[in-house]
Amino acid sequence: MTDRIATLFKDPEHARTYADRPRKIIPGFDGLHRIMAQLLAETSPRQVLVVGGGGGLELKTLIDAFPGARFCAVDPSAEMIGQGKAYLGDPGTVDWLEGYVFEAPEGPFDAATCLLTLHFVPDDGAKLETLKAIRSRLKPGAPFVIAHLSIDRTDPASERQFDRYLTFGSDSEMDPKVLKEAHERVRTQLNCVGPARDEDLLTEAGFRDIEPVFRGLYWCGWVAYA
User: Fold this and answer.
1) Strand residues in 37-150 grouped as ranges (E)
2) What is the per-residue pLDDT across 112-169, written as a single tens digit (0 to 9) for each?
3) What is the CA radius of gyration of the chain?
4) Shortest CA distance to 138 belongs to which of 217, 57, 223, 59?
5) Which of these, 133, 135, 168, 130, lies nearest to 149 by C-alpha position?
6) Does the N-terminal peptide bond of residue 27 adopt cis geometry, omega within 30 degrees of 0?
7) Strands 208-216, 111-115: parallel, antiparallel or unpaired by DSSP?
8) pLDDT digits (tens, 9 = 90+) for 24-54
9) Domain count, the chain
10) Which CATH number belongs to the domain containing residue 147 in this structure?
11) What's the distance, CA 226 to chain centroid?
12) The domain containing residue 93 runs over which residues?
């Protein structure tokens, strides 16, 4: 994660106002959460690793879907963890960990998720190491659901793709100043790669049976298995 992005998520105001933002600017956000829960339900997980779970949004869906399960939510921002606790009412079924997945318990976990997170991680070996760390904490055959913005910046078509996505966000009800700042971050600070590279990284990390299960403009999601 870049220093500027890390600083943003440690901003108390950004954390406080986070909960409503993804639904306004990510196509099909609620559907993505339903898909995530449906896919994990195929194996009835009891221990779930939630990478980048500080905001609490996917945890809300998972807690409702799996009331008897326990969740380990890992996030590098104490402010986002605080927001997640407030959003969820600090449920006793969630173990919060301030840090990165490398510091998470070894498990093994029955399932894992990583939503709206990997596009912050540079593709300089860090993306692959992050995926390997998740894979190493899963039981054999455990499902992993991952989704994020997936645009190949080296592709000449990428500017058009960014324009289309940002146009979608512009039709939201977000504050114009906040939206303008978000647009600038998307264009200049995200470390997104294209779908083919994302799938190659999952394969290199040791996942199998990788299948695309979600697409909303250029937000893409996959299920893969340890």
Assistant:
1) 47-51, 70-75, 94-98, 111-115, 143-149
2) 999 999 999 999 999 999 999 999 999 999 999 999 999 998 899 988 988 888 788 7
3) 16
4) 223
5) 168
6) no
7) unpaired
8) 788 999 999 999 999 999 999 999 999 999 8
9) 1
10) 3.40.50.150
11) 18
12) 3-225
